[in-house]
Amino acid sequence: MSDDRPIGVFDSGVGGLTVARAICDLLPNEALVYLGDNARAPYGPRPLDEIRRFALEMAEALVARGVKLLVVACNAVEVSAIGDITARHGIPVVGVVDPGARAAIRATRNGVIGVIGTQATIASGAYQRAVGSAAELHAAACPAFVEHVERGDTTSQELRRAARAYLAPLRRAGVDTLILGCTHYPLLAGLLQLELGPDVVLVSSAEETAKDVYAALLRDGLCRDGSEPPHHVFLTTGDPDRFRALAEVFLGGHELARIEVVEAVSASPVGGVA
Questions:
Q1: What pLDDT, on the 0 to 100 scale, is given for residue 201?
Q2: Domain that holds residue 63
Q3: pLDDT tens digits, residue range 54-80?
Q4: Residue 1 falls within a domain, yes or no?
């Protein structure tokens, strides 16, 4: 029996579209509702209690739209609120931290892994707990990265200088694998590889998270049979034109037919753009 309800994916901004794209690639029959809280991004510098409040609002908005599974495609949200989100709603909830850690543990050759993320993610110790004793982990907060990506900047000299400074301790530690502990960071993969060198493996959690979504759908009998093409909905609390410009980069060839604008707090529809 086909479950035609959509999968809900949310993030502080456009970064979670890297996860949405991986889900679309792995599960082309599934419909998505994506919500980016661009009006209040970035989340990383905010207190965890504030991130938690925003996260619960975003999750509630997607559940109200009838999603069958929630993907918390934001590391800062996961470390502050995934337990509360899971307890509050009677649907499966998938995060991005454990999938990224698993992939890095498989990839490392010398047992020395780095992770970069927002201040909230790194301060939480979530990746340190996820990696545990399986490898030596070195963490670095990169507070400027999300703002650059949200502006569409992935190449400026200012960004390169910031990356060089953030990554210097990880280079000195001899990491051979780097977890991109923020869903915005895959768009900086070229820059990060240039600064770290070609032998360092960059690990994005997007593909591993999509596999966890697939497993959860199979486990709970929630798969959609694909007799009709899926319809994806994209929501933003911010500027829809800016969202579209960035989303088209993140999503590649995937269709972005319509964007709806929602209120930041209530997440109720207030309009849209074709």
A1: 98
A2: 7-96+207-273
A3: 999 999 999 999 999 999 999 999 999
A4: no
